[in-house]
Amino acid sequence: MEFVEIEKLFDNFLLYDINIYHDDKLFKTGKLKMVTVKNHYIKFFIESAGSIKVLELFYPFSFKQTDNKIIFDYKVDTVTRGNKLLNLKIANYKEEISSKFLNSTVTFEIKG
Questions:
Q1: Is residue 90 part of a domain?
Q2: What is the Cα gyration radius of the chain?
Q3: I need a surface site. Which of 27, 93, 97, 109 has the fewest CB within 10 A?
């Protein structure tokens, strides 16, 4: 999977009103203006209430796409493929990892 793939995934979402969910809970809403990828970060430029907000996420461990949804998977199980020893090792470092998205999913959905 290349970084360019993520930008292309969102081509059909640009200029549409979207909802962004963090583990099925509404997190952000607005019009998606632009998506950029740099290093291991993806920046989403979202227009909401007349101003542009930037949402910056780590590159996901995996992702799925449907007609009107893109789901980023940040679950540890996805990386470890269910390896219990690796899951335990990662759990021991969890305090040092500051991302609130670790071990969760982020869903982008076109409204309507």
A1: no
A2: 15
A3: 93
Q: How many domains are there within the chain?
A: 1
Would you say how long the chain is, in residues? Answer: 112
Which 3 state secondary structure label does DSSP give 82?
coil
Which residues form the domain of 24?
Answer: 6-75+105-110
Residue 80 is assigned to a structural domain of this protein: no
Contact assessment for residue 41 and residue 59, using Cβ atoms and an 8 Å cutoff: yes
The model's pLDDT over 3-13, given as tens digits with 9 standing for 90+, comes to: 557 888 899 99
Does an H or E element contain 4, and which?
helix 3-9
Which residues of the chain are modeled with pLDDT < 50?
1
Is 0.90 topped by the overall pTM?
no
91 inside domain: no
The verdict on residue 1 lying in a domain is: no
